[in-house]
Amino acid sequence: MPVKVRRFSTSVLGFLLFSVSFCIQIVAQTAAVTPPVVPQAAPPTSGDIMRERISKSKAYIVVRNYNAAIFELENIRKESSDPSVQGVVNVLLMNSYLEQGDYKRAQDLLAEFYAAQKTTRPNASDSYMAVAGQIIKGARNRVERYRTLGLNTSDRTLPLEALNDLEKMRETLELVITQTKEIGADKAKASDAMLMLEEASNSRSMLARDDFDSRRWKEEVADTREKMVRSNSVVMSAVNDPAAEALLASGNRPAETVPPPAPPVSQPIVMQPVAANPTPNPTREREVRVIGNMPLDTATAQVEKPVFVAEKPAAAPVEEPKKETPKVEVPVVNAEQLEPVRDNSPLAVGSLVPFATSQAKPVYPSAAKVVRATGVVTVEVVVDENGGVSEVQKTSGPMMLQAAAKDAIRKWKFKPFVRDGQPVKATGFVNFSFAL
Q: For residue 301, what is the DSSP state?
């Protein structure tokens, strides 16, 4: 190969190698300067931020850092207008006040919602019931805490701090009782108010100072139940007078009825004299006798000889002959001719659960969930000949759960009960257990 061709090939090869190495260096420097593209996450929404702040507040409550929890919850309450967020924050805030022992702020918060429920603000009544229910729950937690440690809340030898704490808790419960009584005057809110009043009275009896105080609040619970029964009754008017009902509806009362005048005192019959030869007068008999203060006719003013009218003596009573009572012969019937007497009384069964063919679960009331009411409700019913519930006779158990148990038992079906080959009614009971 000539020398010139060899030199040209070497120079071209070197140029190519230099170009490739230069390109590699440029690519490496570009990769080092430019960072890799990473997909960015979507920015958090206001709802996500509120949830994170509420979770943080709950964590503070768990570790008993109530000051930090109250600070965070109060700020959330000021910043958010979402009803669901407000409902959660209000309950957590009341719980933090009670656990911290700040009863003044707890009572102020309760008074705020009590004033709000008097207005037309939406969900104001539900917010009050939720906060009041948290107070009832806090009182029961307080009692349970003492019982777990073997202490009695009515023991007057407890430390002064414990006695003051219990007294403030009683005062807050009594405030709930007073307010719910006033709310119960409104027919639209009477049902929820009466249920809350019963639960608050029960909690207050658990925190009784002594036996006398316990009896007092137990009687308060009984009175509350009686008021609830009365509120469900209907009073019928005995007088169906539309005019009177309209008058009463207008708020005006009728004037007092004037009593009828007393009958005049009987006076003796005055016999007026009549002339000896009077002229024929068709009204003569009327002029002869004048009774009482009746005016006299001027024609009878001049008299010559008095004439008196004698009354006819009453006839003696005539005794009626006695009638003899006829003798009635009673036919003699043999015992074999009598039909057997059929027993139509209901059959007492006891527990009706084994005989149920169709069951319906009760719906847990929302108000009972707020105060975490639990227990067993016993419903006594009458089952008809077809196996349906014809009557609910009696219920016992937590008052807030009885209505749900009644609604559920009316949907149950049972096997028809038979006595001597004939279908009969039956009585028994069903226990409903409510637990959260």
A: S
pLDDT at residue 408 tops 90: yes
Judge whether residue 381 has pLDDT over 90.
Answer: yes
Q: Work out the angle at residue 250's Cα, subtended by the Cα atoms of residues 244 and 255, and round it to the nearest 5 degrees.
A: 55
Cα dist. 88→54, 57, 59, 65, 370 in Å? 9, 11, 14, 18, 12
- Enumerate the H helices of 257-309 as residue ranges: 284-288
HSE (CB half, 13 Å, CA atoms) of 69?
Answer: 23
Query: What is the residue-wise DSSP string for 67-94?
Result: HHHHHHHHHHHHH---HHHHHHHHHHHH
Q: Does pTM top 0.85 for this prediction? A: no
User: Tell me: the pLDDT tens digits for 62-101?
Assistant: 998 999 999 999 998 888 888 888 889 999 999 999 998 9
Q: Which of 159-163, 369-373, 411-415 has the lowest mean pLDDT?
A: 369-373
SS3 263: coil
* Through-space distance between the first and last CA atoms of the chain, rounded to whole angstroms: 101
Asked whether residue 337 carries a pLDDT value surpassing 90, the answer given is no
| Average model confidence (pLDDT) across the chain | 75
Neighbours of 254 (CB within 10 A): 9
Is 165:141 a contact under the CB 8 Å cutoff? no
Largest CA distance in the chain: 202
**11: pLDDT confidence band, cut at 50, 70 and 90?**
low
Distance CA 373, CA 404 (A): 13
Q: 99: buried, middle or exposed (CB in 10 Å: 19+, 13-18, 0-12)? A: middle
Residues 347, 410: Cα–Cα separation, whole Å: 19
Nearest CA among 419, 352, 422 for reference residue 388:
352
Decide if 110 contacts 135 (C-beta within 8 A): yes
The Cα 216–Cα 233 span in angstroms is: 26
